[in-house]
Amino acid sequence: MLTRNKAMRTATGIVAIGMAAALGSGQTSARSDLTSLSAFADGVAAYIYGYPMMMVGLTERVATTTPGAIPNGGRAPLNQFAKATDLPNGSYKDVVLPSTSTLYASEFLNLIAEPEVLHLPVIDRFYLMQMLDAWTNVSKDSPGTRIGSEPGNYALVGPDWKKNLPSGVNVIHMPTNTMWIIGRIFTSGTQSDLDHVADDILPQLTLTPLSAFDMSYTPPDNLPVDPSIETSVPSLHQVANMDACAFFGTLAAMMKTNSPISPQDDQMVKRLAQIHIVPGQPFDCSSSELDAKTKAALQLAVVTARHTLQTTTGGLQPTATNWLMPLNVGQYGSQFLLRAIVAEKALGANLPEDAVYGYTTSDSANNPVKGANRYTVHWNAPTSQRKAGELPPVNAKGFWSVTIYKADGTLVDNKAVTYNAIGVGPLGPTIQAHNACFNPDGSLDLYLQTDPPSGATQFCNWIPIPPTGGATASDPDFIVFLRMYWPEQAVLSGKWIPPAIQKVD
């Protein structure tokens, strides 16, 4: 969490200069204007606190503004599944860093009126129905392979529901009325496997309002939509473009039905009230309670908070091989800065027990990866010691994958390839939809470059990368993203880390 004192110390210089410019000459110096300085510090903390909910809210708005479910589009009305029967490609922009080794079945739910009942069919491979609240905390009851969830009916219950539920229904309680399910089902990517998931599993994965439970129910289609809602701009950019009035006004509105979580948020709620942000009450920028200096302070706070999210790690330290591999995400408590950074960099992060992610844009020398270069990643053969640099240690029913993304977190705009490095799971190891070529000792070398390698083994293990496109020499051209579903204890303890990306001279 970014404490009030730390925010004030860090930002004093910015406020002294920025306040003078914003308020004009002749105004009281920002250094002596304790009220404005306090509003600035509270505004920074409020932005960081509320950022995850804003990302969820704007992502929900984009994803649910549609008259009906869009196959493979990742969009569906509230309380309806958006099911994918094909893997995402470069045209998919709604969520950053989409997986190319799982099929998504996602939905946003509003649980104010009544619970929704999720029917979980028999699923014959690794799957996870990740359930997030409006603050991006993941429910530990999220059904999946790891916890051995049984097929059946699961009532998804919001905080305000006090009535009885049908007998024989499993119950999952959520702390907020807004809920996001990100369902992931492993696939090898072959057409036959995609068809199996699409024809035999997804049709049985359903969602029904409690009032229609045990009845024949068809989700409504051709619903009216608000044409004023922006759906073409990704939520990440929409939030980034919000000024203080828009951001804090939307946050206050969202908190009307998604209350802060007590007791962990109690002190933050008091800080929000200092700048007139009260859950359930409108935040009015034109109110006489907000004078010009306070408004200027809040606007500077938004700029500063955004800079903080983009330039700090929230306590996340890279491994010795220059990967960020957080092991404390999914449930955040009062770690508001960490929660906000994860929401910006990888919205929808799982609990580590279900999935650990490794993220890097740097090579072994800590230089940004560039499309003009060639790189290799050497994975040592697995041993019982699960040493660092070995092939990722995951449960036999889990899998791991490496995927290449553009620098903005979207997939490469080349539909001919998936840019998926390798998936090891119940259906075997593959690279770009063909079998991986391991070295005689069981190790594996991946080749990251734009042009095809010449050797047979190198070509077999080639993962194309996007060409040079960074704005400056210090900007990376792409992201290398490692996923480990159902990781072993060596990963969770930090004993195992990925190997470094080596630039080829």
Overall description:
It is a single chain. By secondary structure, the chain is an alpha+beta fold. It has three domains: 4-60 and 233-311, no CATH class; 66-212, Sandwich (Immunoglobulin-like), CATH 2.60.40; 336-504, Jelly Rolls. 25% of the residues lie in helices and 20% in strands. It is built from ten helices and 18 strands. A four-stranded antiparallel beta sheet has the order 1-2-7-4, covered by helices on one side. Strands 6-5-3-8 form a four-stranded mixed beta sheet, with no helix packed on it. The chain has a four-stranded antiparallel beta sheet with strand order 9-17-11-12. Helix 2 (34-64) crosses helix 7 (292-311). The longest helix has 31 residues, at 34-64. The radius of gyration is 24 Å and the shape is globular.
Number of distinct beta strands: 18
Poorly predicted regions: 1-32, 415-419
How many helical elements? 10
Q: Largest beta sheet: what is the strand line-up?
A: 1-2-7-4
Distance between the termini: 42 Å
Radius of gyration (CA) equals 24 Å
Write down the CATH topology of the largest domain: Jelly Rolls
* Mean pLDDT rating: 88
**CATH class annotation of the largest domain:** Mainly Beta
Q: Please tell me the total number of domains.
A: 3
Helical content band: 25-40%
Strand pairing plus helix content: what structural class?
alpha+beta
